[in-house]
Protein backbone atom coordinates (compact mmCIF):
# COMPACT_ATOMS: atom_id res chain seq x y z
CA UNK A 1 0.00 0.00 0.00
CA UNK A 2 1.25 3.50 -0.84
CA UNK A 3 0.06 6.85 0.48
CA UNK A 4 0.49 10.45 -0.66
CA UNK A 5 -0.98 13.78 0.32
CA UNK A 6 -2.49 16.10 -2.29
CA UNK A 7 -2.11 19.88 -2.22
CA UNK A 8 -5.54 20.24 -0.62
CA UNK A 9 -4.52 18.16 2.36
CA UNK A 10 -6.53 15.10 1.37
CA UNK A 11 -5.14 11.63 1.04
CA UNK A 12 -5.19 9.40 -2.08
CA UNK A 13 -4.85 5.70 -1.36
CA UNK A 14 -3.85 2.85 -3.65
CA UNK A 15 -3.78 -0.78 -2.58
CA UNK A 16 -2.73 -3.79 -4.61
CA UNK A 17 -5.03 -5.97 -2.48
CA UNK A 18 -8.29 -4.03 -2.48
CA UNK A 19 -9.27 -1.05 -4.61
CA UNK A 20 -11.12 1.96 -3.27
CA UNK A 21 -14.80 1.44 -3.97
CA UNK A 22 -17.70 3.67 -4.94
CA UNK A 23 -15.71 6.51 -6.50
CA UNK A 24 -17.62 8.98 -8.68
CA UNK A 25 -16.45 11.89 -10.81
CA UNK A 26 -18.67 14.94 -11.18
CA UNK A 27 -18.13 18.28 -12.89
CA UNK A 28 -19.23 21.78 -12.13
CA UNK A 29 -20.26 23.00 -15.56
CA UNK A 30 -19.68 26.68 -14.91
CA UNK A 31 -16.09 26.33 -13.79
CA UNK A 32 -14.92 23.19 -15.54
CA UNK A 33 -13.66 21.93 -12.15
CA UNK A 34 -13.88 18.22 -11.43
CA UNK A 35 -14.68 16.64 -8.05
CA UNK A 36 -13.95 13.12 -6.92
CA UNK A 37 -16.65 11.96 -4.49
CA UNK A 38 -15.80 9.03 -2.31
CA UNK A 39 -19.00 7.39 -1.07
CA UNK A 40 -17.18 4.92 1.12
CA UNK A 41 -13.69 3.84 2.01
CA UNK A 42 -12.94 0.24 2.94
CA UNK A 43 -11.00 -0.55 6.04
CA UNK A 44 -7.44 -1.33 5.01
CA UNK A 45 -5.17 -3.21 7.35
CA UNK A 46 -1.56 -4.13 6.84
CA UNK A 47 1.14 -5.75 8.93
CA UNK A 48 3.57 -3.24 7.47
CA UNK A 49 4.22 0.09 9.14
CA UNK A 50 1.14 2.24 8.86
CA UNK A 51 1.05 5.60 7.14
CA UNK A 52 -0.35 8.50 9.11
CA UNK A 53 -3.82 9.18 7.70
CA UNK A 54 -5.71 12.41 8.21
CA UNK A 55 -9.19 12.68 6.75
CA UNK A 56 -11.68 15.48 7.14
CA UNK A 57 -15.38 14.84 7.47
CA UNK A 58 -16.18 16.01 3.98
CA UNK A 59 -16.23 13.42 1.23
CA UNK A 60 -15.23 15.78 -1.59
CA UNK A 61 -11.74 15.86 -3.03
CA UNK A 62 -10.94 18.86 -5.22
CA UNK A 63 -8.65 18.12 -8.15
CA UNK A 64 -7.23 20.31 -10.87
CA UNK A 65 -8.88 19.61 -14.22
CA UNK A 66 -6.89 19.96 -17.43
CA UNK A 67 -9.35 20.50 -20.28
CA UNK A 68 -8.66 18.39 -23.37
CA UNK A 69 -9.12 20.39 -26.52
CA UNK A 70 -10.88 18.64 -29.37
CA UNK A 71 -8.71 17.62 -32.31
CA UNK A 72 -8.75 20.17 -35.15
CA UNK A 73 -9.47 17.22 -37.45
CA UNK A 74 -12.91 16.87 -35.84
CA UNK A 75 -14.11 20.15 -37.31
CA UNK A 76 -14.84 20.54 -41.04
CA UNK A 77 -13.83 24.21 -40.90
CA UNK A 78 -10.55 23.40 -39.16
CA UNK A 79 -9.78 20.65 -41.67
CA UNK A 80 -10.39 23.09 -44.51
CA UNK A 81 -8.00 25.61 -42.96
CA UNK A 82 -5.35 22.93 -42.40
CA UNK A 83 -5.75 21.77 -45.99
CA UNK A 84 -5.00 25.25 -47.27
CA UNK A 85 -2.13 25.69 -44.83
CA UNK A 86 -0.44 22.38 -45.69
CA UNK A 87 -1.14 22.32 -49.44
CA UNK A 88 -3.80 19.59 -49.43
CA UNK A 89 -6.95 19.43 -51.52
CA UNK A 90 -8.71 17.61 -48.69
CA UNK A 91 -7.78 16.41 -45.22
CA UNK A 92 -10.02 13.53 -44.24
CA UNK A 93 -12.00 13.42 -41.05
CA UNK A 94 -10.90 10.83 -38.46
CA UNK A 95 -11.95 7.28 -39.23
CA UNK A 96 -14.04 5.71 -36.44
CA UNK A 97 -12.16 3.09 -34.38
CA UNK A 98 -14.83 0.48 -35.07
CA UNK A 99 -14.02 0.43 -38.81
CA UNK A 100 -11.74 -2.46 -39.77
CA UNK A 101 -9.62 -3.19 -42.82
CA UNK A 102 -12.08 -5.92 -43.73
CA UNK A 103 -14.92 -3.39 -43.75
CA UNK A 104 -13.02 -1.25 -46.23
CA UNK A 105 -11.74 -4.07 -48.43
CA UNK A 106 -15.20 -5.57 -48.81
CA UNK A 107 -16.45 -2.37 -50.44
CA UNK A 108 -13.92 -2.69 -53.28
CA UNK A 109 -15.11 -4.29 -56.56
CA UNK A 110 -13.66 -7.75 -57.08
CA UNK A 111 -12.44 -6.78 -60.54
CA UNK A 112 -9.77 -4.47 -59.08
CA UNK A 113 -7.96 -7.53 -57.69
CA UNK A 114 -7.85 -9.31 -61.05
CA UNK A 115 -4.44 -9.80 -62.64
CA UNK A 116 -4.34 -9.09 -66.37
CA UNK A 117 -1.18 -10.34 -68.08
CA UNK A 118 -1.87 -8.11 -71.09
CA UNK A 119 -1.95 -4.97 -68.95
CA UNK A 120 1.14 -6.13 -67.09
CA UNK A 121 3.00 -6.57 -70.38
CA UNK A 122 1.84 -3.11 -71.46
CA UNK A 123 3.43 -1.58 -68.35
CA UNK A 124 6.73 -3.33 -69.18
CA UNK A 125 6.62 -1.99 -72.75
CA UNK A 126 5.94 1.55 -71.49
CA UNK A 127 8.94 1.42 -69.16
CA UNK A 128 11.32 -0.18 -71.64
CA UNK A 129 10.31 2.25 -74.41
CA UNK A 130 10.46 5.38 -72.23
CA UNK A 131 13.81 4.35 -70.73
CA UNK A 132 15.29 3.64 -74.16
CA UNK A 133 14.03 7.01 -75.37
CA UNK A 134 15.62 8.62 -72.33
CA UNK A 135 19.03 7.08 -73.09
CA UNK A 136 18.71 8.28 -76.69
CA UNK A 137 17.91 11.79 -75.44
CA UNK A 138 20.97 11.75 -73.16
CA UNK A 139 23.17 10.63 -76.06
CA UNK A 140 21.90 13.34 -78.44
CA UNK A 141 21.04 16.27 -76.15
CA UNK A 142 23.42 19.24 -75.86
CA UNK A 143 24.73 19.92 -72.38
CA UNK A 144 22.15 22.63 -71.74
CA UNK A 145 19.30 20.13 -72.28
CA UNK A 146 20.81 17.22 -70.37
CA UNK A 147 18.91 18.03 -67.14
CA UNK A 148 15.62 17.52 -69.03
CA UNK A 149 16.88 14.24 -70.47
CA UNK A 150 17.98 13.10 -67.00
CA UNK A 151 14.62 14.05 -65.51
CA UNK A 152 12.79 11.99 -68.14
CA UNK A 153 15.12 8.99 -67.85
CA UNK A 154 15.11 9.04 -64.03
CA UNK A 155 11.31 9.04 -64.10
CA UNK A 156 11.25 6.26 -66.70
CA UNK A 157 13.54 4.03 -64.67
CA UNK A 158 11.26 4.63 -61.68
CA UNK A 159 8.68 2.74 -63.73
CA UNK A 160 10.98 -0.30 -63.52
CA UNK A 161 10.86 0.03 -59.76
CA UNK A 162 7.04 0.08 -59.81
CA UNK A 163 6.98 -3.08 -61.94
CA UNK A 164 9.29 -4.80 -59.44
CA UNK A 165 7.11 -3.39 -56.68
CA UNK A 166 4.05 -5.14 -58.16
CA UNK A 167 6.03 -8.35 -58.52
CA UNK A 168 7.04 -8.20 -54.84
CA UNK A 169 3.37 -7.88 -53.86
CA UNK A 170 2.41 -10.80 -56.12
CA UNK A 171 0.09 -8.53 -58.09
CA UNK A 172 1.90 -8.59 -61.46
CA UNK A 173 1.48 -12.08 -62.90
CA UNK A 174 -0.33 -15.30 -62.13
CA UNK A 175 3.02 -17.07 -62.52
CA UNK A 176 4.84 -16.46 -59.24
CA UNK A 177 8.26 -17.63 -60.45
CA UNK A 178 7.96 -15.26 -63.41
CA UNK A 179 7.14 -12.47 -60.98
CA UNK A 180 10.35 -13.02 -59.02
CA UNK A 181 12.44 -13.14 -62.21
CA UNK A 182 10.90 -9.96 -63.64
CA UNK A 183 11.10 -8.23 -60.27
CA UNK A 184 14.80 -9.04 -59.95
CA UNK A 185 15.53 -7.86 -63.52
CA UNK A 186 13.48 -4.68 -63.10
CA UNK A 187 15.49 -3.72 -60.01
CA UNK A 188 18.92 -4.37 -61.57
CA UNK A 189 19.34 -0.98 -63.36
CA UNK A 190 18.69 0.59 -59.95
CA UNK A 191 21.21 -1.76 -58.29
CA UNK A 192 18.43 -2.46 -55.83
CA UNK A 193 18.39 -5.99 -54.33
CA UNK A 194 14.87 -7.28 -54.96
CA UNK A 195 14.35 -9.76 -52.10
CA UNK A 196 15.81 -7.58 -49.31
CA UNK A 197 13.62 -4.72 -50.44
CA UNK A 198 10.57 -7.01 -50.61
CA UNK A 199 11.03 -8.21 -47.03
CA UNK A 200 11.48 -4.68 -45.69
CA UNK A 201 8.57 -3.32 -47.73
CA UNK A 202 6.19 -6.01 -46.49
CA UNK A 203 6.86 -4.77 -42.96
CA UNK A 204 6.09 -1.21 -44.06
CA UNK A 205 2.65 -2.36 -45.20
CA UNK A 206 2.02 -4.37 -42.06
CA UNK A 207 3.13 -1.54 -39.74
CA UNK A 208 2.39 1.67 -41.67
CA UNK A 209 3.08 4.75 -39.49
CA UNK A 210 3.77 2.61 -36.44
CA UNK A 211 6.56 3.95 -34.29
CA UNK A 212 9.72 1.81 -34.34
CA UNK A 213 8.25 -0.85 -36.66
CA UNK A 214 7.56 1.04 -39.91
CA UNK A 215 10.52 0.71 -42.29
CA UNK A 216 9.72 3.88 -44.28
CA UNK A 217 10.18 7.46 -43.05
CA UNK A 218 10.27 7.66 -39.26
CA UNK A 219 10.26 10.94 -37.33
CA UNK A 220 13.46 11.97 -35.56
CA UNK A 221 13.54 10.90 -31.92
CA UNK A 222 14.25 13.80 -29.54
CA UNK A 223 16.31 11.61 -27.21
CA UNK A 224 18.56 10.40 -30.02
CA UNK A 225 18.78 13.87 -31.50
CA UNK A 226 19.97 15.24 -28.15
CA UNK A 227 22.34 12.34 -27.57
CA UNK A 228 24.44 12.89 -30.70
CA UNK A 229 25.20 16.62 -30.97
CA UNK A 230 27.96 15.92 -33.51
CA UNK A 231 25.40 14.41 -35.90
CA UNK A 232 22.68 17.04 -35.43
CA UNK A 233 23.64 19.07 -38.47
CA UNK A 234 23.72 15.96 -40.66
CA UNK A 235 20.26 14.94 -39.39
CA UNK A 236 18.92 18.46 -40.01
CA UNK A 237 20.23 18.42 -43.57
CA UNK A 238 18.94 14.88 -44.07
CA UNK A 239 15.39 15.74 -43.01
CA UNK A 240 15.58 19.15 -44.68
CA UNK A 241 17.26 20.09 -47.98
CA UNK A 242 18.72 16.60 -48.66
CA UNK A 243 15.51 14.75 -47.89
CA UNK A 244 14.54 14.25 -51.58
CA UNK A 245 17.56 11.97 -51.90
CA UNK A 246 17.64 10.33 -48.46
CA UNK A 247 16.33 7.07 -49.89
CA UNK A 248 19.96 6.52 -50.93
CA UNK A 249 20.92 6.19 -47.27
CA UNK A 250 17.93 3.89 -46.70
CA UNK A 251 18.94 1.78 -49.74
CA UNK A 252 22.48 1.35 -48.47
CA UNK A 253 21.85 0.89 -44.75
CA UNK A 254 18.82 -1.41 -44.89
CA UNK A 255 19.30 -3.78 -47.82
CA UNK A 256 22.91 -4.99 -47.85
CA UNK A 257 23.38 -6.03 -44.22
CA UNK A 258 22.52 -9.71 -43.71
CA UNK A 259 22.11 -9.14 -39.97
CA UNK A 260 18.93 -7.18 -40.64
CA UNK A 261 17.08 -10.23 -42.00
CA UNK A 262 15.52 -13.33 -40.48
CA UNK A 263 17.29 -16.68 -40.90
CA UNK A 264 14.61 -17.98 -43.29
CA UNK A 265 15.15 -14.91 -45.51
CA UNK A 266 18.93 -15.09 -45.81
CA UNK A 267 19.22 -17.42 -48.82
CA UNK A 268 16.87 -15.35 -50.98
CA UNK A 269 18.63 -12.17 -49.85
CA UNK A 270 22.00 -13.61 -50.90
CA UNK A 271 20.67 -14.46 -54.37
CA UNK A 272 19.43 -10.89 -54.85
CA UNK A 273 22.70 -9.41 -53.61
CA UNK A 274 24.60 -11.69 -55.99
CA UNK A 275 22.53 -10.42 -58.93
CA UNK A 276 23.14 -6.79 -57.97
CA UNK A 277 26.89 -7.26 -57.55
CA UNK A 278 27.06 -9.13 -60.87
CA UNK A 279 25.30 -6.25 -62.62
CA UNK A 280 27.75 -3.79 -61.08
CA UNK A 281 30.74 -5.97 -61.97
CA UNK A 282 29.65 -6.42 -65.60
CA UNK A 283 27.38 -3.48 -66.42
CA UNK A 284 29.42 -0.63 -65.00
CA UNK A 285 32.71 -1.62 -66.70
CA UNK A 286 30.86 -2.01 -70.02
CA UNK A 287 29.38 1.48 -69.71
CA UNK A 288 32.78 2.94 -68.82
CA UNK A 289 34.48 1.01 -71.63
CA UNK A 290 32.01 2.35 -74.21
CA UNK A 291 31.49 5.89 -72.92
CA UNK A 292 34.15 6.62 -70.29
CA UNK A 293 33.66 7.83 -66.73
CA UNK A 294 31.72 10.85 -67.98
CA UNK A 295 29.44 8.47 -69.87
CA UNK A 296 28.84 6.44 -66.70
CA UNK A 297 27.83 9.66 -64.93
CA UNK A 298 25.61 10.77 -67.84
CA UNK A 299 23.91 7.47 -68.65
CA UNK A 300 23.70 5.77 -65.27
CA UNK A 301 24.43 7.96 -62.24
CA UNK A 302 22.28 10.98 -63.07
CA UNK A 303 19.15 8.93 -63.97
CA UNK A 304 19.77 6.89 -60.81
CA UNK A 305 19.76 10.08 -58.74
CA UNK A 306 16.55 11.07 -60.54
CA UNK A 307 15.02 7.75 -59.53
CA UNK A 308 15.98 8.31 -55.89
CA UNK A 309 14.43 11.77 -56.01
CA UNK A 310 11.10 10.14 -56.87
CA UNK A 311 11.65 7.25 -54.46
CA UNK A 312 12.22 9.69 -51.59
CA UNK A 313 9.57 12.25 -52.43
CA UNK A 314 6.85 9.74 -53.32
CA UNK A 315 7.36 7.89 -50.03
CA UNK A 316 7.35 10.98 -47.84
CA UNK A 317 4.32 12.50 -49.59
CA UNK A 318 2.42 9.22 -49.19
CA UNK A 319 2.82 9.06 -45.40
CA UNK A 320 4.19 12.32 -44.00
CA UNK A 321 2.15 15.38 -43.02
CA UNK A 322 1.79 17.44 -39.81
CA UNK A 323 -1.67 16.00 -39.16
CA UNK A 324 -0.76 12.33 -39.83
CA UNK A 325 0.47 10.71 -36.60
CA UNK A 326 2.94 7.94 -35.96
CA UNK A 327 1.61 5.81 -33.11
CA UNK A 328 2.89 3.20 -30.69
CA UNK A 329 1.77 -0.35 -31.33
CA UNK A 330 -0.72 -0.31 -28.44
CA UNK A 331 -2.49 2.74 -29.92
CA UNK A 332 -2.12 1.83 -33.59
CA UNK A 333 -5.17 1.04 -35.70
CA UNK A 334 -4.64 -0.63 -39.08
CA UNK A 335 -7.64 0.90 -40.84
CA UNK A 336 -6.80 4.40 -39.60
CA UNK A 337 -3.16 4.06 -40.62
CA UNK A 338 -3.87 2.73 -44.11
CA UNK A 339 -6.94 4.80 -45.05
CA UNK A 340 -6.45 7.92 -42.89
CA UNK A 341 -2.66 7.84 -42.78
CA UNK A 342 -1.96 7.46 -46.50
CA UNK A 343 -2.08 10.33 -48.99
CA UNK A 344 -3.33 10.33 -52.57
CA UNK A 345 -1.34 12.85 -54.62
CA UNK A 346 -1.93 13.77 -58.27
CA UNK A 347 1.19 14.47 -60.32
CA UNK A 348 1.51 15.70 -63.93
CA UNK A 349 0.13 13.07 -66.30
CA UNK A 350 3.49 12.15 -67.86
CA UNK A 351 4.82 11.23 -64.41
CA UNK A 352 1.69 9.19 -63.64
CA UNK A 353 2.06 7.26 -66.93
CA UNK A 354 5.79 6.57 -66.57
CA UNK A 355 5.41 5.61 -62.90
CA UNK A 356 2.33 3.42 -63.45
CA UNK A 357 0.00 5.29 -61.06
CA UNK A 358 2.04 4.51 -57.95
CA UNK A 359 0.81 7.78 -56.44
CA UNK A 360 -2.77 6.51 -56.44
CA UNK A 361 -1.55 5.13 -53.17
CA UNK A 362 -4.46 4.73 -50.75
CA UNK A 363 -5.97 1.63 -52.41
CA UNK A 364 -2.48 0.12 -52.55
CA UNK A 365 -2.36 0.33 -48.75
CA UNK A 366 -5.85 -1.04 -48.36
CA UNK A 367 -4.72 -4.08 -50.33
CA UNK A 368 -1.22 -4.48 -51.85
CA UNK A 369 -2.69 -7.25 -54.06
CA UNK A 370 -4.33 -4.63 -56.29
CA UNK A 371 -2.23 -4.35 -59.50
CA UNK A 372 -0.97 -0.87 -60.36
CA UNK A 373 -3.15 -0.76 -63.48
CA UNK A 374 -6.27 -1.18 -61.31
CA UNK A 375 -5.41 1.45 -58.69
CA UNK A 376 -7.48 4.22 -60.26
CA UNK A 377 -10.63 2.10 -60.38
CA UNK A 378 -10.04 1.10 -56.75
CA UNK A 379 -9.55 4.73 -55.74
CA UNK A 380 -12.82 5.74 -57.38
CA UNK A 381 -14.55 3.08 -55.29
CA UNK A 382 -12.91 4.38 -52.11
CA UNK A 383 -14.00 7.91 -52.96
CA UNK A 384 -17.59 6.73 -53.33
CA UNK A 385 -17.66 4.74 -50.09
CA UNK A 386 -15.07 6.40 -47.84
CA UNK A 387 -14.42 9.74 -49.53
CA UNK A 388 -14.79 11.95 -46.46
CA UNK A 389 -11.93 10.09 -44.71
CA UNK A 390 -9.37 10.44 -47.52
CA UNK A 391 -6.31 12.69 -47.59
CA UNK A 392 -5.91 14.03 -51.12
CA UNK A 393 -3.60 16.54 -52.78
CA UNK A 394 -2.24 17.65 -56.11
CA UNK A 395 1.52 18.10 -56.10
CA UNK A 396 2.45 21.66 -55.19
CA UNK A 397 5.30 23.60 -53.63
CA UNK A 398 3.44 24.30 -50.39
CA UNK A 399 2.96 20.58 -49.81
CA UNK A 400 6.68 19.93 -50.23
CA UNK A 401 7.63 22.96 -48.13
CA UNK A 402 5.37 21.75 -45.32
CA UNK A 403 7.05 18.34 -45.20
CA UNK A 404 10.62 19.64 -45.48
CA UNK A 405 10.29 22.44 -42.92
CA UNK A 406 7.84 21.03 -40.32
CA UNK A 407 7.85 17.22 -40.20
CA UNK A 408 10.97 16.56 -38.15
CA UNK A 409 11.04 15.60 -34.45
CA UNK A 410 8.42 13.23 -33.03
CA UNK A 411 5.98 14.64 -30.50
CA UNK A 412 3.03 12.63 -29.22
CA UNK A 413 0.71 15.62 -28.92
CA UNK A 414 1.74 17.68 -31.96
CA UNK A 415 2.93 14.74 -34.12
CA UNK A 416 5.96 16.77 -35.28
CA UNK A 417 8.08 19.62 -33.97
CA UNK A 418 10.29 21.41 -36.54
CA UNK A 419 14.03 21.63 -36.01
CA UNK A 420 13.95 25.43 -35.80
CA UNK A 421 11.85 25.13 -32.65
CA UNK A 422 13.98 22.39 -31.09
CA UNK A 423 17.42 23.83 -31.86
CA UNK A 424 16.89 27.27 -33.46
CA UNK A 425 20.59 28.09 -33.28
CA UNK A 426 21.47 25.05 -35.44
CA UNK A 427 18.52 25.01 -37.83
CA UNK A 428 19.85 27.34 -40.54
CA UNK A 429 19.11 24.80 -43.33
CA UNK A 430 15.43 24.83 -42.34
CA UNK A 431 15.16 28.60 -42.08
CA UNK A 432 16.88 28.79 -45.47
CA UNK A 433 14.26 26.47 -47.00
CA UNK A 434 11.47 28.55 -45.50
CA UNK A 435 12.88 31.63 -47.18
CA UNK A 436 13.70 30.24 -50.63
CA UNK A 437 11.06 27.57 -51.31
CA UNK A 438 7.95 28.79 -53.17
CA UNK A 439 4.66 28.67 -51.31
CA UNK A 440 2.35 28.05 -54.24
CA UNK A 441 -0.49 25.58 -53.70
TrEMBL record:
It comes from the Eukaryota. Keywords: Membrane, Oxidoreductase, Transmembrane, Transmembrane helix. One of its GO terms (molecular function) is oxidoreductase activity. The keyword Cell wall biogenesis/degradation does not apply. InterPro entries: FA_desaturase_dom (IPR005804), Fatty_acid_desaturase (IPR012171). The keyword Transmembrane helix applies. Pfam families: FA_desaturase. Residues 143-389 form the Fatty acid desaturase domain. Belongs to the fatty acid desaturase type 1 family. This is Chloroplast omega-6 fatty acid desaturase.
